[in-house]
Each structure stands twice: as C-alpha cells, then as structure tokens.
Amino acid sequence: MPSRLERANAIRALAMDAVQRANSGHPGAPMGLADVAEILWREVLRHNPNNPTWLNRDRFVLSNGHGSMLLYAVLHLSGYPLPLEALQNFRQLHAPTAGHPEFGECPGVETTTGPLGQGFANAVGMALAERELARAFNQPDYPVVNHHTWAIVGDGCLMEGISHEVASLAGTLKLGKLNVIYDDNGISIDGAVDAWFTEDVAGRFEAYGWHVIRDVDGHDADAVARALAMARGSDDRPTLIMCKTVIGWGSPGKAGTADAHGSVLGDEEIARTREQINWPHAPFEIPAEIYQEWDCREAGAEREADWQRLFKAYQSAHPELAAEFERRMAGELPDDWDKGLVNFAVSAQTGLEPLETRKASQRCLEMIGPNLPELFGGSADLSGSNGTKWKGARVMTADKGGNYYSFGVREFGMTAIANGMALHGGLIPYTGTFLVFMEYARNALRLAALMGIRNIMVYTHDSVALGEDGPTHQPIEQLSNLRTTPNLSVWRPADSVETSFAWQAAIKRREGPTAIVLTRQKTQAQIRSEDTFAAIHRGGYVLVAEQHELQAIIIATGSEVELAVAAARQLSARRIGVRVVSMPSVDTFLAQDAEYRDAVLPPDVRCRVAVEAGHPDYWHKFVGLDGAVVGIDRFGVSAPGDQAMAELGITTDAVTAAVDGLLGGK
Amino acid sequence: MPSRLERANAIRALAMDAVQRANSGHPGAPMGLADVAEILWREVLRHNPNNPTWLNRDRFVLSNGHGSMLLYAVLHLSGYPLPLEALQNFRQLHAPTAGHPEFGECPGVETTTGPLGQGFANAVGMALAERELARAFNQPDYPVVNHHTWAIVGDGCLMEGISHEVASLAGTLKLGKLNVIYDDNGISIDGAVDAWFTEDVAGRFEAYGWHVIRDVDGHDADAVARALAMARGSDDRPTLIMCKTVIGWGSPGKAGTADAHGSVLGDEEIARTREQINWPHAPFEIPAEIYQEWDCREAGAEREADWQRLFKAYQSAHPELAAEFERRMAGELPDDWDKGLVNFAVSAQTGLEPLETRKASQRCLEMIGPNLPELFGGSADLSGSNGTKWKGARVMTADKGGNYYSFGVREFGMTAIANGMALHGGLIPYTGTFLVFMEYARNALRLAALMGIRNIMVYTHDSVALGEDGPTHQPIEQLSNLRTTPNLSVWRPADSVETSFAWQAAIKRREGPTAIVLTRQKTQAQIRSEDTFAAIHRGGYVLVAEQHELQAIIIATGSEVELAVAAARQLSARRIGVRVVSMPSVDTFLAQDAEYRDAVLPPDVRCRVAVEAGHPDYWHKFVGLDGAVVGIDRFGVSAPGDQAMAELGITTDAVTAAVDGLLGGK
After folding, report:
1. Among B63, B53, B60, which Cα is nearest to B100's?
2. How far apart are CA B262 and CA B553, in angstroms?
C-alpha cells in the first residue's frame, strides 16, 4: 500500500511536471504543502468529489493561489471531474487549470485567488455565511448547515494588510469553524523573509483572539494530522495552524530557496528530485494503486448521502424551512420580492420629494429587506452615512444571528468577506463605504466582477458636492474606474425613482456585482411620463424630450441630471431643440440593442454635452471629438458642497454655455 | 498662570467653535486628544513655529485626519503662521484649514491625512528617511540629522490593513525614533467598537517588535508626560503609547459617544461644555495669558539656532557633505545626473535591441543610480520581476544603511511609506509592483498626486501579454484609471528609448508622482530620426510618418506600438497614407501647445485608430465617435502571452482591419 509520503509525492510530481510542461508556474508551494494537503484532503476535509457543489461540503480556499497546482493535483487525485489532460494543459488557453485558480472554470475551486490575502478574506466570509445560515435554518436534531471552512495562507497573505482586517474580525466574531493553515516556509519572492517579515505571527493571531497551534512540522504527517484534528475539534475560536514547511520540498538543488517559488525546476533538477523523493514514474504517470488510495469518491458519496438523509428528514419535519433553504442556496429570489420596491418607485414618481439618493437607497432597503432574508448588509463604519442600515436590520454578533454587521474601518476586508459570503451561497451581501474609499477595496471589487458573483456595493458621497471633507474624500476619477471594470454594473441614479431601479437591477443581477453610486446631498425628483418611467431600466433614456427640432443632446447622470434639465429649460426657452438623456447605468444602456441606443442618441446629432461631477475623459465615448464634457479634471476643494460644485464649474450655466459653444461653433 | 487643563481647553474650545461655525467637522477627537496634544506640542515636540520647514524638526502626523481642528488649534496656539481668521474659516473655500489637513495648504501640516491608516504609513516613511539620512550624513560630533517622528492614530487607523503592513515593517526595521500615540477612545462612527474591534492592540504591536506603553490615562497630564518622555528615550524600537481617552471630553451630553465624532455639538451643548470645562470665553476668544503660555516661538527659535550652529560647524568640518545635504533636502538634482540616461537612450536608438521595457527600466536605473544617492528603491516582493534592483543598490536593513528595500508583499504600505519619504525630503523614492496590484496601493498613489510629491511608481507586467498568470494578474482597466488621476504623470514606453525618456521625466518632475508602466515581454526597438527622437519628450509624437497623403492615424502606446507600425507598413504598401503616433504619456502630450498637438493629430483627420492592450473606452478622447479602438473590454485569459493577445484581439491584423473598416465606411 502506498505510504502517505508516496501519496504526497504524487502531488509533488504532478506539480513539478505540470509547471515544467507549461514552462511557467509555481512548483514551490505545492511541493512544500504536499504532506499537509494529503492529510487535509483525504482525511479531514468533508467533501464529495462526485458533487463539487454539495451544499454542506467543507469549503476550502487556497489563498496563496499561485500554488494552484496543489489544488489541481488534489482535485484530480481525489476524484473530482478534472482529468489528467487538464493538468497536462496547465496554464494553457481555455484549460480549466488556469495559472491561478479561477472560480467557475474548474470544479472544486471555491474562489478565485492569486491577489494575496483575499482568499483568506473569502474564507472568513464563507465561515460567516455558514454560521448565519446554521443559525437561521438548523433545528434541534437537524444540523443541516454544519461544515467547516479551511484555508491555506502563505507568508505573502499574512504580510498583506487585508489579512489583518479579516483575522481581527474573525477573532472578534469567534468564527470557530474557520481553520487556517499557515504555510510558514520563510521564503517569498525576494528571498528569505527575515529582512522584511519578522513579526511573531502566533502572538499577533493570539492578540486577535485566535486559537493558535504553533510549531507544526509540515512534513511530519502525524504532527499535521494531530494539529488538523485539534483545529477541527476547536470551534469556539478560529484556529491558525502554523505549519513549518520547506518550499520546494524534495528538490535537492532548490528546496528552501526562492528559486523554487515561481519558476520551473528544469528537467535536470526534476530528474534529481524524482530520485531524491523516490518517484520513478514518468511525467504525469500516477500508479493505479496511488490513484486508488487517493480516491475520495466513495467516502464522499457516503458523506453526502448521510447529509441527504438528514436533509430529507428535515424536509419532512420543517418543509417550509427546507424549501426556503433550497431557494436561498440556489440564489433564486422569492416571488414578489420587489413589489414594495416597485411601489416605492411609483410613489416617488408621483411624490416628487427632493431626497439624497443615499436616503432613497435606504428607503429601497426598507422595501426589500422584509422580503429578502438572504440580504446581508454592512458598512465600513459608515452605516448612518451610507444609509445601509434599515429598520429591520438585525445586528449580527459573535453570539447572535443577524443580517447586518458594522465591519469597522476595513473596506478591503469587508468587500472580500462579502465575496466569500456570495460564493458560499445563501446570502446576498451588500456593503457600503464612501465612493472614494472604494479604492481601498478596489481589487476585491474587481475579483467579484471577474468571478461573476452577486455582491452589491453601496458607494455614497459620490462627488465634490459632499463638500467640506475636501479632496481626500471627493471622488473624481472613481466613476470612470468603475465603468471600465469588465462585468461590473454601475448605477448612479438621479433621484429616488432611478435609485429604486438601480436596486431592482442589482438584486436581479446574478452574473456579477453592482455598484450603486449615491449622493450625500439632496437631488431634485424628476418628472417622467409613464413611458419615460418604464425606460429607466434600459440604463439610459430620454428624460426630457426636445421641444424644437433636435439640435443638441445633454447626457447626465446622478445629481447632475437636474443641472442638465435646468439647462435644457433655458435653452428650450430660446427655441433651441435640446434633449436630456439621463444615463444612470452606462453598461446597461450599452447592453441595449443598437436601434434603441440610436433612438436615444441619434448618431447624426453631434452636438452633445455630457455633464458629470467626475473626470470628463470617459464621456468622450459618447460625445466624441465634436462634443463637450462638463466635468472635473482636477482634485476637489474643501468647502460647502454647492460652493465646491460652483468652484469646479459644475453648474447649469456651464452646461448651457457648453451647448451654446458647440452650436455657435457650427 | 493658566493650568495645563486651561491650555488644553483652549484646543477644545477652538475645535468645538470652529466646527460649529463651519457647521461641519469632527469635534470629538480634538476634544479627546487635547490633553495629550498640549503636552506633546509644548513640551515634547522639537519644532520651531517660526520656520515650519526647519530641516531637523520633529515630524508630526495626525493620522486620524478628521481631527484636523486639533492640528490647526495647536499650530495656531503655538505660534505658527496660521491666524485665528483661518480657524474661523475652517472648511471654507480657499482657507488653509481644509476639512482634512492638506499638505502644502497649511504651514506645519506635514502630510495630507483623512484616508485612514495612511498617515501612520507616512510617519513610518519619515522615520525611515530620517534614519537613512542620519546614516548618510551624520559625522562624529555632528548629528545634523537627528529628529523624531510622532504620529497620532485612531481606532480607524488601526483597523485598516495598512496599519498592519507598516507597523510590521517598522518593527522589523527597528525604527526607534518613531513614536505613535494611539487615541484609544473606543468609539468609531458606528458606535462603541466592542462589536467590531476587540483585538489586543498591545499584544499585536508587541508581536511586531514594538515597545508598547500600555494604559496611559490620556487625561492625566503627568501620566501622559511620563509616557511621552519614555517614548522619546526609547530609541531601539518604535514605541506605541496607548492613551485611553474620552472622545468629546468636556461635553456633558456627548462625551464618550459616537455623536461627538463627526457632527457639530450644537450651540446648547457647546454652552454646557463651556460651563463644564470652565471656559467662560467667547467663541474664538483665547485669553492673552493662555496665548503667552502656548507660544512656542522663542523656544523653537532657540532650538533651531542651536541646530544652525551645529550645522555651521558641520559645514566647516565637512563642507562637501553639508552642501550635498542641502542639495538633497532642497530636492535639487546634481548636474549631469542624467548624462548616462541620455547616453543610454542614444545607444538604444542605434543598437535597436529588442528588450522587455522592464529590463530597459532596470538599465536606466543602472545609469541613474550612481549619480543620484537620494534615489531609494524597493519592491513589494517582486524585485527581480520589476527590475527595480540595480547593481549598485545597497540593501537597507535595521542595522545598515542602504538605498534599496524589499518591502514584502505590502503594496499599500510600501507606497504610503514612499510618500512619507518624499515628504520628509532628502530622498526620491521609487517602488515597484505588478500594474494590476497598483490597485492594492491605489489610494496612496492618489494622495501622492493630491499632495504633488515626487514619488515614482514602477508598474510592470502591464497587459494580458504577461500570459499564464491569467486574469487576476492581467491589467485591463488600470491604465485608464491611472490616466484619469489628476496630477499623476503616466508613461507607458514602447521600447528602451522611450523608457529612458520616461525616467528622465519622472526624476525631473517635482510637482507630482509618475507611474512608469512596463512590459513583461520583449518589445521591438523602434527606428527614429533625430527629430523623432527629440520629440519623445512631448509625450506623443509622429513615430512613422505617412508615405502617401494622410488618410488615417494609428495611435498606440507601449508594446502595441510595434503592432501599429506593422499595420502601417501593410497599409502603406497598399498606398494608404497612414501615420503612427506613439503616445507614451498622454498627460505630457496634452500639456503641449495646441499647435503641436494639432500637428501630430490633425483635427480634420477623423479616421483614427487607437490600439492598446487595455480597456478601450479611454481612447475615444482621441478617436471620437468616428474612430475605432483596438482594445480589451473583458477580463484576460491564462495562456502564453502571445496567445492571450491573439485571443483578445490585440493583433496587427485587427489594427489593419480597423483602419480598413473606417476607410471603407467613408
């Protein structure tokens, strides 16, 4: 029977061979972690390779995503639908085995990792989701939600600031079913970490309130098995298992050095490694008996069958809860979830109350919240300012379930935790901060878009009109940054009505995240006909039709729509045919058919002015070289909001002058 | 004689009155920190209000920048050129007293703070700069560089991930002259922090290797004085002074609550506070005797005079060192610093060697480094990949001076530390990471631009052509994000020659940061005439002139310039008059006069194609509605670089087809 070491060496061989064939990749981490992974995957992790999406599986996150071959190797060996061919095509075009693990591309990959530290945060989010769902659905004798979340993190993950944010939160929240394995190999790309990473990691995590298992020899199978069992058994606090490993273990020439990290070992070194680890098999050749030992399918099927039996009994005992659990895990919305929201839009359209769109957003949440128990909100310490907390929000704590959490001043951690919650399933996260501090969380937002998950971001204080807080808080270039992010939907509503449409779209959108960008200041409610109202969902629409033959188009978003409307009124009074297009969601507008788009923006009308209190350059996509943009290409100023807007030229007069300038220039 | 408490109450009164008059701001932190600040400012900090830029002053950073009125109050009271009128105009248009402290707008403000945690990082950078300059310039009996760096940080700063990155580094580097006061008031905007911030901060900082002074009552003047003196005396490790304070101290109704944080107290509460703290004076009225007690000008002048005497003696003993110190602190470049760099450009122009622009950048550093001892480099654990380490780079450690440091995987901390180094003066920092991970550091880059400081960012692996690492590592929207950042200069050179020009511009640019965006893969060297070569510094220029009457213009940057040139060759062979404009720096090009710009891009030539392996939308600024962009509006793919480029349509054929499409469509 193959020994543990042989089974681990199968990982090592696959990793070094796949990297070698791709002539690209990171053999060091998989080779260093092979012994740990062998035990974790075969003996500890409760999963079912036959069904990678089994609802109650343990979640596993490889936060040091560059070690992707570790994950691909164990997925393949344990029987996931990932054939050897996929490993042979490691890092090749359209292979499921991308350079870094990609969610949705490869069965068993729970999240996309590579940008360091974020996998750790995702794992915190998954553990949090598990606990909230357990609190909501489990019943005496029916622990239908009951799994652990495991993560492996590297030195790089722990250097990154986000590891601090989420580890501190996990400790505060006592997420006991989170177990994190620290691959303590003392090497990062620049070499031995002694010169830049000397902190006492154990002390740091104990300060966070974690259970820390120190000094585990990551190549001593018994020690690892003991540590993982201890971690699994300790559910009052999250556990950090500190495994001392040797990067590139087995390579006589490169083990323990940065050379093993991110480059092929080379044919010669691979041959020497084969000899050293006593692995005589050809590249990609795994002896049948090793495959057999590795195969986790039978055990996994039994494990899931046990759970299915439990769930069946639960369905009998608690049919409504069971149906609701299945609905939520499937990510489906209940019937009529948006009834209140639609009604709010209608009443806002008739009520015409000027309102901060952040407050309108809060009212939307009041409408949605009662119908969507899966909605889980939060803010990076700006709950009141962001309007993310609604009346029915129940604050989650370490001891009590809820649907709202103040994440503290941790934008990046919050957003990446929300990614983890969305990935786990059963929850729809939405989180808030000021638009400018989106930047702190920026790469987590990008990963949400890349993964195509439903994660809703509420970004308030969306322009220099926020006023006195000044340029550090005033967004300029952020909107165009959001709009150029693939697969991110962005809404910047002009009033309460558009805000309702933004929320409708955001909740419905399953294939990616949505950013809802909101004002601090009051905005005027816009008057709309029934048709105009109905067109909002198209992302861009004619809000004010021309009163005379069409000469000019003013495109505006958010709080600047009222300036556009006022300018159009002035111009119209001078018998100039001008139309106002409100474009709360550029991406949604661009997704409409050409006929609609051309009807809103007739291609031959080149006198176009865009107005937005943000960087102007983006808008040339719509106004071209012949149009004009009333925007802001400098940093803001600390002053009352209206004065800041005036100082920076975002005024009705500027819009009127821009149209006049273009028409005069004809 | 006014008591300590009365002097502290002067801060409290100014803070609450200024916030009230502005009807906006944060009274809580200044009122809570007044006792600490009184001692720090009057008795501990070695500064000279007469000369806020005295070279050897202690640096002070208010990392919790929303408490700006604390800083404005002590600056005013201690005699800086900040009149009472400025405080009365707190947060008003064009006042030096912006909502958050702004570097360059107000004497005595050492850095712009507000985005939490970054001030802490700046302070680490200042302390690091101080130590490196001391190592370089101090001589026996002549400690001409010898000051401390002080910072105040709030709960929010310590929640932010960046605090972890930089505190860990400061501990590793044993930055003993850094003293950080933690305003431990237990309150953040969402309320008492117990529910989201329960970590053992002292334990955490001890794990980082800091000297921690625990349990200081921030309202017990003797305790604070003792703690600050102890911190000042302890220079082997950085010190954290943990001051327990009450936010809004003195306000009977709001002290100790989140209500005191970010809103006016209100006239009534202010009246009650005046009574409680026994401050009978009218708003903005400070009794003369309190002013007198606060006045630090005489002591400051003496302190600086002592140093000036020392420096004069140093000038006699070490004239060359003294002159060099003054040059570096003035931020002036030595004569002929760029000779090697210019020569490199010339030889690259004649040598025409294909090279990765990241390697060309490294060669530039080899040319610059020996002439610029103030250059201080680093990378976020990607030294080899970024090409930031040159042969003459001397690695800095806790014990040894140098001009290079591996910052570990800490992009945000690194960039904000570099901001602190630039702010301190005497060093020109440059740091590297992959372009996509700029996002981790994004807001520090923004602050560098806002502050207008010379901080150079080297961003390599600048497109999907980086290949197998896949979409997590492949930039798409990052270039347009950089280009829409006000006051950031961006260069994306096409070859070694343009890379040299990028470095020349970056080093010369004193008024703001520069991002140099570089390829992982080899780029072809472009052939240029003498005139063409000379035009590179204009940021955009005609690289290949049309061979026939001008019909079309192809605009390209970086590695796509060679595609544009190849396409132009094909089109030219078909007798189509096409010109290639290389535009390594859009902002530099836009700063040229209209005549030049119109000569490069004749306004009537509307058949324009831009090609860049990044998001296309930005380029409509140049190609308008009639042109076309060959770009990438989706995420990348994990595959060898050339295959990734082909898969995503960045090819010569695509450029040719785009031109044909536009011409055919005419």
Report:
1. B63
2. 54
Buried b (16+ CB within 10 A) or exposed e, B264-283: bbeeebbebbbeebebeeee
* DSSP percent split of chain B into helix, strand, coil, nearest 5: 50, 15, 40
Beta-carbon contacts of A4 under 8 Å, excluding residues fewer than 6 positions away, are A35, A38, A39, A221
Interface check B469 vs A, CB under 8 A:
yes
Contacts of B397 (CB under 8 A, 6+ apart): A195, B173
Dig out the tokens for A90 from the structure: 């490691």
CB contacts under 8 A, B 365-394 vs A, are 379, 381-385
User: What is the C-alpha to C-alpha distance for residues A593 and A601, in angstroms, rounded to an integer?
Assistant: 12
What integer best gives the mean pLDDT of chain B?
97
Q: Which residue of B has its CA nearest to A167?
A: B199
A638 CA: distance to closest CA in chain B (Å): 5
CA distance A38 to A221: 9
Is any Cβ of chain A less than 8 angstroms from the Cβ of B239?
A: no
Residue B123 Cα, gap to closest chain A Cα (Å): 17
ipTM over 0.90: yes
The verdict on whether A411 is a catalytic residue reads: yes
A87-102 exposure pattern, b = at least 16 Cβ within 10 A, e = fewer: bbbbbbeebbbbbbbb
Best probe of the B interface among A93, A407, A619, A638, by most B CBs < 10 A, is A638
Cβ-based contacts of B382 with chain A (< 8 Å): 189-190
DSSP string, B51-81: -TT-TTPPEEEESSGGGHHHHHHHHHHHT-S
Which residue is listed with tokens 């001078």? A574
Q: Is the pTM of this model over 0.80?
A: yes
Catalytic-role residue among B102, B110, B304, B411: B411
Cα–Cα distance, A581 to B137 (Å, whole number): 63
Q: Please answer whether residues B121 and B127 qualify as being in contact, where contact means their C-beta atoms are separated by less than 8 angstroms.
A: no
Chain B environment of A113 (Cβ under 8 Å): 472
**pLDDT grade, residue A1 (50/70/90)?**
confident
Local structure of A318: helix, strand or coil: coil
pLDDT on residue A308: 98
Asked if A536 and A584 touch (Cβ cutoff 8 Å), the reply is yes
Cβ within 8 Å of B, A 470-529: 470-473, 476-477, 480-481, 483-487
Q: What is the per-residue pLDDT across B221-243, written as a single tens digit (0 to 9) for each?
A: 999 999 999 999 989 999 999 99
Separation of alpha carbons A459 and A358, rounded Å = 9
